[in-house]
Design brief:
Length: about 375
């Protein structure tokens, strides 16, 4: 594949100079920005992530800021997740749906203040949906994309590295909670979260000018920890069942189909509620499942996904599949029709180089 040309439409990030210097070998585009795909290789990055600590430029997780007297009112309309018990320092993973229950995004919500929320978005122009709802209803809120760029620190040595830069208080941050911690003459929201199962933090870098100074501080402080630049890793995230909006599920899927029913518990009359509640009661007609695909780790890359069959009938689609060195199988996430998704069910996957047996698993691998 040829390269990507950055521009005002396909933006670099405050950390792009560091990412480039660290030797990113491929990028994808996410929220109109560059997101590295791998540095050494998927497998080498994965091994390092599970043993050491990595710094990830996830600036592409843009913040949609909703601020003003009607902020909570708008958030309650947009989110199927019950926000009433959300603590002042809490983050919530939450689907956002249209009026048919179709997923528009699956952000992490951050409560900045009683009248101020950030939605840390997956790939999609969620700002336009929020702005449309606000303007259309005359709500008293500002909806903007602030100059905030998340930097993730992930891996088993993340606590140690972060403690060296932000102090031992980082060790007290609980999962999906945050503290405001000082850096130079400012402070950042620092949460224990991130798109891996290896543990770690996300620093919401407020102000692009702080990007490279923070990047350099982390690398200086972590030399003896073998810190490296990294990025969300395909193998590790499929093993962990971390979903990629736009790939694993899209607007044609509900959160129930996407296995996110536990995040749809709001008592409010949120958008999409009737469809979501009906699917919760009756069960969806298809659902995302972990699937182990037999055979060697030589699946050809397929950006369109792999069709799944029972006998000769198509019963699903796998959007993400990759060889897992730790589990010695091809791990994957597939949207599978009702009646075919029970654990242990053996299906056939059209890999493009022939049919392969594949088994529906009970749980994701990590
Ligand atoms: N961090 C932040 N913003 C993000 C992501 C992130 N925006 C885009 C994308 N990732 C949104 N998607 C997800 C998907 C999964 C999780 C977070 C964001 C996640 N899930 C955990 C799990 O499934 O185990 C925990 C969910 C929970 O229990 O609340 O972390 O990564 N800032």
């Amino acid at each position: 594949m040829a390269g990507i040309v950055p521009s005002r439409r396909v933006r670099g990030t405050p950390f792009t100079p560091g990412v480039q210097a660290a030797g990113a070998k491929a990028y994808t585009v996410y929220n109109h920005m560059l997101l590295p795909s791998y540095f050494e290789s998927y497998e080498a990055d994965y091994r390092h992530l599970k043993e050491h600590v990595q710094v990830w430029d996830v600036s592409v997780e843009r913040q949609v800021s909703v601020k003003g007297p009607d902020a909570l009112r708008l958030m309650r309309q947009m989110s199927p997740r019950d926000m009433d018990k959300m603590a002042d320092d809490q983050c919530y993973y939450a689907p956002i749906c249209d009026h048919n229950g179709g997923m528009l995004n699956d952000p992490v919500l951050i409560k900045i203040a009683e009248d101020h929320y950030w939605m840390s978005i997956a790939d999609g122009d969620l700002l336009q949906w929020a702005l449309g709802l606000a303007v259309g209803q005359g709500l008293d809120v500002d909806v903007v994309e602030p100059d905030v760029s998340p930097l993730a620190v992930q891996g088993p040595k993340a606590d140690e590295l972060m403690a060296r830069v932000f102090g031992d208080v980082v060790r007290d941050i609980k999962f999906f909670r945050y503290k405001r911690l000082a850096f130079e003459d400012t402070e950042f929201v620092v949460a224990r979260s991130g798109w891996s199962k290896q543990g770690g933090f996300e620093i919401y870098v407020d102000g692009s000018d702080y990007g490279m100074p923070l990047w350099n501080r982390l690398f200086d402080a972590g030399q003896d920890l073998n810190v490296r630049a990294g990025c969300p890793n395909l193998i590790e995230r499929v093993e962990g069942g971390l979903l990629s909006y736009g790939s694993d599920m899209r607007r044609e899927n509900t959160p129930i189909e996407s296995g996110l029913a536990r995040f749809c518990n709001s008592p409010e009359g949120y958008i999409g509620k009737s469809v979501i509640e009906a699917q919760k009661a009756d069960g969806p007609n298809k659902m995302l499942r972990p699937i182990a695909i037999d055979g060697p780790g030589d699946l050809p890359h397929n950006a369109l996904g792999w069709d799944v069959y029972a006998d000769n009938k198509q019963v699903g689609l796998i959007a993400s599949a990759v060889w897992s060195p730790d589990f010695n199988t091809n791990v994957s996430i597939g949207m599978i029709d009702r009646g075919h998704w029970d654990p242990g069910t053996v299906l056939n996957v059209d890999t493009g180089t022939g049919m392969r047996p594949a088994t529906v698993k009970e749980k994701f691998w990590i």
